[in-house]
Amino acid sequence: MFKFISLVALCATVYCAELQPHPYALVKQEIGRGQTVMIEAGSTMCNACKEMGELLYREKQINPDRKIFFVNVGEERDAARAMKIQMIPTQIVYDKNGKEIDRHIGGFTTDALKKFLAKHKI
Description:
The chain is an alpha+beta fold. Helix content is about 45%, strand content about 20%. The protein has one domain (about 20-120): Glutaredoxin (3-Layer(aba) Sandwich), CATH 3.40.30. It has helices spanning about 1-15, 25-30, 45-60, 75-80, 110-120, and strands spanning about 35-40, 70, 90-95, 100-105. It has a four-stranded mixed beta sheet with strand order 2-1-3-4, sandwiched between helices. The longest helix has 16 residues, at about 45-60. It is globular.
């Protein structure tokens, strides 16, 4: 029984390490406060969104000070409308003054995500 529980814990650690959802109301407060912010708009029911969540989680582990947030628009429909989300996953970047400066629809490979984050100095 102990081996089974250990295996389940290991699988959860390896495969389920993804960016956790943040309420849109709280994320909005971070926009325009002097630092570039990236929002990952997606759903916990979307496979591509889960993959992005894993990639972003790893990037946040490298630099925890990054302002990268996941908003679950599958549950927060008002947030989806406010951010004008048409497809998920969508990544939105806001500059330090709160102006939207980039939007990407779809997932990224690890290398493409690193380039996207570097381009925006996130």
